[in-house]
Amino acid sequence: MTDSKYFTTTKKGEIYELKADLNSDKKEKKKEAVKKVIASMTVGKDVSSLFPDVVNCMQTDNLELKKLVYLYLMNYAKSQPDMAIMAVNTFVKDCEDTNPLIRALAVRTMGCIRVDKITAYLCDPLRKCLKDEDPYVQKTAAVCVAKLYDINPQLVEDQGFIDQLRDLLTASNPMVVANAVAALSEINDASPSGTTLFDLNAQTINKLLTALNECTEWGQIFILDSLSNYTPKDDREAQSICERVTPRLAHANAAVVLSAVKVLMKFMEMMPVDSEYLTTLTRKLAPPLVTLLSAEPEVQYVALRNINLIVQKRPEILKQEMKVFFVKYNDPIYVKLEKLDIMIRLAAQGNIAQVLAELKEYATEVDVDFVRKSVRAIGRCAIKIEQSAERCVSTLLDLIQTKVNYVVQEAIVVIKDIFRKYPNKYESIIATLCENLDTLDEPEARASMIWIIGEYAERIDNADELLESFLEGFHDENTQVQLQLLTAIVKLFLKRPTDTQELVQQVLSLATQDSDNPDLRDRGYIYWRLLSTDPAAAKDVVLANKPLISEETDLIEPTLLDELICYIGSLASVYHKPPSAFVEGRNATRRVLPTRAPGSGSTSPESETAAAVVPQAPQVIPQASQGQSDLIGDLLGMDLGPPASAPSAFGGAPAGFGAAPAGFGAAPAGFGASPAGFGASPAGFGGAPMQAQPEMSAGLDLLGGGLDSLIGGGGMSQPAPQPMMGGGNMGALGDIFSLASGPGLATGMYVEPKTVWLPAAKGKGLEISGTFAHQQCQVYMDMTITNL
Asked: What is the reported pTM?
């Protein structure tokens, strides 16, 4: 007979009948009544009024009936805390029962009843159960300590339960050890201090490793997680632990496998890079990770996110396993995209042919998002592997010939990046790209095509016509396209000044007069000023060599990667964020990978010095090539001190440019006398262009009188020289940063608070903040660089 009969609807006097049955002298009738009560409770009916009658049924030797009553108590104790105390005496009595199952059941139930009034009575029975001779009771009591800590942390610490848990780590039963480790780990995570509650030493580690082979799979996970927090004293101890953990890689449970991988990945950091055991361990790690990819899609995704981290840290582990990451037709999109990312990370000169063949096949799929990612992946492969760039470009051209709109547009975007990486190498394909100009309708693709035309304007005969076609609907374009079009036309003018004056005049007018976008207006004003004052400087700025892009820009920042390796198998490894980023109120100690001991045979920097040195990070921003300006270096090396006398920077136009082109002498609308937003012209901005002034730095002329030629025209008389603020000869920057003329302020008394110039989110963990200060007639830049 099934239990379905207990869920059937009964007649009107249901509660009354149940009450009568619960108080019956017949044991079977009493058991049936309790089952009906539990059934009603399960479907959501309120049977709390039967609380005293159900509690009376606790006094029984029948284990099944006792379990049912305890289940009822756990559910209704919160709503009936005063009546729940009636059951305390029975709990205490059951904790001393001769049957270990009843003792364990009683202490487990008391731990689950989250009522403050009961927790005080729980301490004595719990203390006895932690010392119980039966391991089943001990392991149940160990978990109960963690539950009690969640209710009342102070009580657990005062009663010495944590010390008793530490003692259980040396128990003979592996399940007791596993549950003690689990309880201590839970308490440690919940502890506000974040300090480790139990110190792992060689003896404890040996005990945990012995228990590892005999406890359940979830016990193994807790033990492995605790092992990962241990730092061996040398590489020999690390190797010994790894040898005993390695068999867990063959476990059927994916969580056990990932926990074992976490321990091995951490301890591998301590081994010499040329050791034979490290090579063997690297080979052993690949098969279990590959096996995880044959599980259901959800497990596959978790495995792939973890593999993504492992591949970034140690690509040699899976370098021979490229084929397992090839996409299957029935893979969910989230699995496909992860596989695609890992394929790119594993791509190398030896396997690029099969990777490109796969990616080209993916580009013909029906899923548009996946196709776009596949085309971008081809571009990333070209940037990553220089020897195969030509083959990648050829593959992209084949895809462009398919004339599929979104494929063509995505291909043009990635070809722009390839041009950035390999300048002046693949210009022969520009003609093919220009054929598809009319089909481009996405802002990113249009902006990329405009960039290509502007960058290689001298090689495209009809570049002016192509750019003019974009200019017709300038105000309807996306901001990204407008900015790129403005820059491209200025580039074209600087390369072919004779026949593009009208075009550049038109785009500058559109950008400065007719646009409401402040970014576009500002860029237009900057270009206008550059072109009207010093075309040679404009050429140096606009046509300067661009820094080469690098494929490594999508890598996780090295210190974050090391931290995430310590969290393999947890949510942090799926989100690719440390726990503090998504667990509210978490302030646990940050985990880091151990470093190799000196003299271990490693060639890494940390092995050569006794001091803790941060390992050299992979180069995310490439170094400037020889002869190419270094932006950060120039910023740090700015000479803001009192300059020597310098000749005027506006003496005459350089050879090859002649006079400024027609229309550049006068300012555009908005630059007239005191336009809105500019107020009255400051000293040095209102009259005719400044001639040679000894106190003006030649490098700062663009901040000085260069704007006068645009603002007031050349016919105005030269104003009388103004005395420098603060009595110094700092010129324009001194005037800007000194507040000596302010009411009641002496020179150098005010320092602007530091502001963030480069947020850590944009700088991949590098944050730059700073301020400028004026002290003793000198301008100082105070900058702080922080690696978060």
From this structure: 0.69
